[in-house]
Design brief:
It contains three helices and no strands. With 88 residues, it is mainly α. The chain has one domain.
Length: 88
């Protein structure tokens, strides 16, 4: 009986720690991608050519949205869960 409780406790603590680590990793990835998007957008404004020209910075600025939007959703869920935990 004691070994079952101990195993369950260790598993719960390990999964909670891993979830917190993944949340931190997702938040850091979001920050890095937002910084990269801002820099690419600023570079795109400086090197804006004609109406039909596409620069590397402009393409990168648009492509980064594919990674930023899901991470924003995850970040929102993390914040909501933390708020619910504090309120209980």
């Amino acid at each position: 009986m004691i070994s079952t409780v101990t195993t369950t406790t260790v598993t719960t603590i390990a999964s909670t720690t891993m979830a917190a680590g993944l949340g931190l990793l997702a938040t850091l990835a979001l920050i890095v991608l937002l910084i990269a998007k801002e820099l690419a957008g600023a570079q795109n404004l400086q090197t804006a050519g004609g109406a039909g020209s596409v620069s590397y910075a402009g393409a990168l600025d648009r492509i980064l949205n594919a990674a930023i939007i899901p991470l924003l959703i995850v970040f929102t869920l993390i914040v909501v869960v933390k708020i619910i935990q504090v309120l209980h």
